Amino acid sequence: MSLRRILAGVVMALGLSVGGAQAGQTLDTVKQRGILNCGVNVGVAGFSLPDSQGVWRGMDADLCRAVAAAVFGDPSKVRFVPLTAVQRFTALQSGEIDVLFRQTTLTMTRDTTLGLRMVIVNLYDGHGFMVRRDANITDPKQMDGMTICLSPGTTNELVTTDWFRANNLRFTPLLQERMQDNATALQAGRCDAIGTDATQLAALRSQFQKPQDFVILPQRFSKEPYGPVVRRDDQEWFDVIRWTVSALIQAEELGVNSKNAEELRKTSQNPEIRRLLGADPVLGNALKLDPAWAYNAIRAVGNYGELFDRNIGPDTPIGLERGMNRLWTDGGLMYSWPMR
C-alpha cells in the first residue's frame, strides 16, 4: 500500500478532510481535470477486466463510462484505477479516485464510519460458496473442516466466519487480496471452496479451464447490495452519481435504450421521457450538468437491462439470470426514484 494511502487512512481516522476535495468541489475538479478517475476491481470478468487490447470491460467499467458521458458527453474520458478490497476505501478517502464502482456491498458501518457515502444499489447479490463438483457437497453444512479461500477486508470474510460459528462448524481461512489468486488456489487444490458473492463466483468460474468441474451452491447467506461509493464531503457529487445510475434504471422502465434514445429525444411527447433525455432541461439544471446528461449516458452504455445483459446476463459466459435485479414491474427490486 502506498504511503499516500496509509496517511490518508490516518487522517480519516482523525476525522479530518482529505484529498483536497471539499464540499461541492468534486464536480468542478473533475471537469477541470478533464477526466474521471474511477476505482474498479483489479480484474473480475463481467464487472471490470481488461480485454486483449487493454480496454476495460464489464458492468462496473460501463458504469464509470456512464458517469463520464453524463459529465463530459464523452464516455472515453475515464481513467480506470484497479484496486483490491483492502485498497479501495483508502484510495477514495485520499482523493486518488473520484468514485468507486467495485462490487462494493453497501453497509451501515461503511456508510457511517469511513467518511464515505454509499450512494445507490446497482446490483443485488448474496454470499455463497463454490466447491469442486467431485466433493459431492450440496449443503454448506457438509463443509465442516474445509479450507475456504476468502478476500480480507470484505463482507464475505465476516459472513463466512459468522455462519460457521453460528452452526458450530469449523473452517480454515486462506486469505488472499486478489480474487484471481483465490480462483487459482481452488483449482490447484490449495483450498476446498471460495466464499464470496454469487455473481463473483459465476464470473470466476467462467474463466476456469474446466468450469464444469465446479459447483456454486444454491444457498445464500447474506444481503449484498452493490453500489457506488463517494466521499461524504460533497453532496453535489453524490447527486451526480446517484442520478446517473438512476437514469439507466429509469430508461429501462420507460423503454428507452441506446438504439432508440436519439429518435425518442426528438419525437416523444411523454413528459417523463422528455425530461430524462433532456428535451426538457430541468433535470440537467438540477445537477449542474448539460441537459443531455442522461441521454449521453444511455447512448454510451445502454439502459440498465442492456448493461446487465451485455456483461453478466444469460447469454454471456457469466450466465446470470436477472432474478432480484429485474425491474420492480417484473417482480424484481430494481426501482428508480421518480425523476421529476
The low-confidence runs, each spanning 5 or more residues with pLDDT under 50, are 1-21
Shape: globular
Strand line-up of the largest beta sheet: 10-9-11-8-12
Order of helices and strands: HHEEEHEHEHEEEEHEHEHEEEHHHHHH
Q: Work out the oligomeric state of the chains in this entry.
A: single chain
Helical proportion?
Answer: 25-40%
The DSSP helix count reads 14
Extended strand count:
14
What do you see in this structure?
There is one protein chain. This protein has 340 residues and is of the alpha/beta class. The chain has 14 helices and 14 strands. It has a five-stranded mixed beta sheet, sandwiched between helices. Helix 6 links the parallel strand 9 and strand 10. Helix 1 crosses helix 4 and helix 3 runs antiparallel to helix 13. It is globular, with a radius of gyration of 20 Å. The termini are far apart. The N terminus is likely disordered.
